[in-house]
What does this fold into?
Amino acid sequence: MQTHTQHAHEGLGLGIDAGGTQTRWALAAPGGHILAEGTVDGLSALQMASSEGRGTVRATFAGMAQAVLEHGRPAAVRAGMTGFGGEGEQLARWLAGFLGIESGAVTLCNDIEIAYLASFSPGEGYLVYAGTGSIGAFIDAEGALHRAGGRGVVLDDGGGGFWIAREALRHIWRKEDEQPGSWESSPMAQAVFQHIGGSDWSYSRQFIYHSERGEVGKLALAVAATAERDPVAASILCEAGKELARLALALTRRFGPRPVALTGRAAELHPVIVDTMRALLPPDTPFSQTGLRAHHAAARLAAGPLPGID
It folds into this structure.
């Protein structure tokens, strides 16, 4: 979906926030005004590990570039990608080629860096992000990124959408081990099986082991939808809040008290997640939940430095 009308300003900045579920882009004019924005399929730098994944990333970049160029050609690009670990040369070449600019005009980083700068100035506070995965982040006054968690859905990412989905499926199938057919009396299990296509183990196996991580994360919506009717679903969401609080507390212990901001679509699934997290933070901690627009922040960074940010 595209928004706004076509512009042809010089010095445009393109910002990209690539997550497992959805990739958002925005085009900003010098001074920070957002001229256009849109969405494409989810992306992860982890997809670059396979030929199929590389093909998907390349095709998604191509489609996004086509949409962007309908509004204007950016002079610079700032892109944050989930799973990014510094291997950006090929990604930068693809983006630059599709946009018709020099690859040196493309700056890539981890998506959490962009998300942090959309919420805080360096040194100001702690950001806890809960999307498909989860991470706590602090960028200090010197610009160094410090993190807690964010080590991927296989190892951790507690409180994120994938984690919630995995916990739900784990509970459902353990219960089936003990009482086959018990899923029929569980609102959460019914919603989960409807989402993945069936109650046979083959559906769950195919879903959890062969779907993209962003697709698995969307199953958390079914869990949240049944929290008022299924105490197990409510308990999983409560545990998600505890996991997210752990990230903020870890950073607080390392760097001292600071405001905490919570963001990400998983954090918006149900109020119990936010309420549980807030209750576990020190009572005098300034706490906010923000629906940040990281792609806007990235676009403004590409168009020119934001105040207080080099």
Summary: Residues 231-255 form the longest helix (25 residues). The chain is about 40% helix and 20% strand. Residues 1-9, 306-310 have pLDDT under 50 and may be disordered.
